[in-house]
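Priority: medium. Attachment 1 of 2:
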């Protein structure tokens, strides 16, 4: 945090908040199901679809549905998340020989922190319902999902960086701006901000809060040729 803060203070324009390629993971929820593929996952990211594997009952469909509540300061919002964070989850989750794989990766919701605070949906100050999370539903009859919760935790972790402190409203020092007019604008924005970064003392209202969900199955992802051969056999 010390070196990060120093870098921001030394180059506030080059490292302006809206251009930072950061994702903060603020809540991590894992639910276990006898049939994880039967849990509905809704995607609103508009990201290019990847090949989704249909997990049948004879393929041991037991697995996890993971829900991440995250935040990014990047002004590209959903585009940035889809092109970086979601894409990496998809790529790394399909590597062979891991003994598990990620099948579906979706973004069911997202909004600025200030918008979230005014709504009844998930937000930084009001996480909303826990457990399975929005977008998930019980398995249809005959599929046998149990919905046992496997674990929760790790609030305030930044992917690849460590702990992220919660927003604080007042009482933090700030780097001196370079121009009086810039100082006036920054003071005004800070005074009117609903959320303030306690580390950098920057307004956070424009940060984008979003939810990611993905399912994890406890066997290696079938190779493309194996899946094709199985389809030919069933046909």
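Attachment 2 of 2:
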């Amino acid at each position: 945090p010390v070196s990060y803060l120093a870098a921001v203070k030394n180059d506030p324009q080059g490292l302006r908040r809206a251009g930072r390629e950061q994702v903060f993971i603020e809540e991590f929820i894992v639910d276990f199901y006898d049939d994880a593929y039967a849990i509905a996952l809704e995607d609103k990211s508009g990201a290019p679809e990847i090949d989704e594997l249909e997990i049948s009952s004879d393929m041991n469909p037991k697995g996890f549905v993971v829900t991440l509540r995250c935040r990014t300061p990047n002004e590209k919002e959903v585009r940035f998340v889809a092109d970086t964070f979601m894409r990496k989850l998809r790529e790394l989750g399909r590597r062979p020989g891991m003994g598990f794989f990620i099948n579906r990766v979706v973004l069911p919701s997202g909004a600025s922190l200030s918008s979230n605070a005014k709504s009844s949906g998930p937000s930084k100050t009001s996480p909303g319902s826990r457990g399975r999370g929005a977008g998930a539903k019980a398995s249809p009859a005959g599929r046998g999902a149990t919905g046992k919760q496997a674990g929760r935790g790790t609030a305030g972790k930044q992917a690849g960086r460590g702990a992220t402190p919660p927003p604080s409203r007042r009482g933090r020092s700030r780097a001196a701006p370079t121009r009086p007019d810039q100082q006036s604008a920054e003071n005004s924005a800070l005074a009117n901000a609903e959320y303030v970064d306690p580390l950098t003392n920057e307004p956070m209202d424009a940060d984008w809060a979003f939810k990611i969900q993905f399912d994890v199955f406890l066997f290696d992802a079938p190779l493309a040729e194996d899946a094709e051969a199985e389809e030919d056999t069933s046909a």
